[in-house]
């Protein structure tokens, strides 16, 4: 009996930490960062990358010269930052992708978005049972953002037309693995249940 409990605990820990390791952190624009200098091609930067639920985008930039706006598809196309969903200004913004869907980001400094400082990414489900479920039709996926001196917040990344995420064919748990791991003491509570 003790051996069975030990095996269940070991498998639980491996599953929890194995799934959490699967998330990837991407620095937008790689070494160049989020900028208009050097003519960074953010369309090409996205090519070959598979963004999954739980991944993090890090926008590194000179905050005296740039910012980051999460916007709707329509505002992305028009380079309109006036009605942004979320405005980031720290110069080192980490944005966690919490749900499948299409996300849009632009620089709100006049002329920068038009010069190519904008990013469109599509986020797929990570396929794990703890992944955040897709938003219902008409709703948007969500992101959490943390920047230096800031706190995490949840916002829709592209509400409006064209941003409804693809539907999920698998039944998912109501809480994401990241929510579970972030809750203080949840692992201890889980493990205490096996003692």
Automatic annotation (TrEMBL):
Residue spans of biased composition, Low complexity class: 127-156
Transmembrane segments: 172-194
Superkingdom of origin organism: Eukaryota
Name recorded for this polypeptide: Phytocyanin domain-containing protein
Signal peptide segment: 1-22
GO molecular function: electron transfer activity; metal ion binding
Cellular component GO terms held in the UniProt record: plasma membrane
Gene3D superfamilies: Cupredoxins - blue copper proteins (2.60.40.420)
Keywords annotated in UniProt: Copper, Glycoprotein, Membrane, Metal-binding, Signal, Transmembrane, Transmembrane helix
Source species of the chain: Citrus x changshan-huyou
